[in-house]
């Protein structure tokens, strides 16, 4: 499996787990609580596969950053949370950092 495909799937799985965490209401709801366990379990497994081929700094930096961006977007769309202009700039900086790390930096695996 392409390590970037595995990383993308890990990020998506983490987003499912984090969304389920919000919906679990402190683990008081069984189905969302199960979603947390499955989402994070699959995410960590896929990250472990990714780490076989890519440097840990690239993997973790990308996973964490795109997880933040994704969760912020889910918060706005699904949970009607607000994101002000400063938050949007912060997210843009995170995306720029992922780009620099993966495309421009010499530490990337390209």
Describe this structure in words.
76% of the residues lie in helices and 0% in strands. The radius of gyration is 15 Å and the shape is flat. It has one domain (3-104). The longest helix is centred in the middle third of the chain and has 22 residues, at 56-77. It has 4 helices and no strands. The protein has helices at residues 3-23, 30-50, 56-77, 85-104.
Helix content bin: over 70%
Strand content: under 5%
Order of helices and strands: HHHH
User: Largest beta sheet, briefly?
Assistant: none
Q: Give the oligomeric state of the chains in this entry, treating copies of one chain as homo and distinct chains as hetero.
A: single chain
List keywords for this structure.
single chain, 4 helices, flat
Q: Which SSEs are present, and which pair or pack?
A:
Blueprint: H1 3-23, H2 30-50, H3 56-77, H4 85-104
Helix pairs in contact: 1-2, 1-3, 3-4
Q: Short description, anyone?
A:
This protein is mainly α and 110 residues long. It has four helices and no strands. It has one domain.
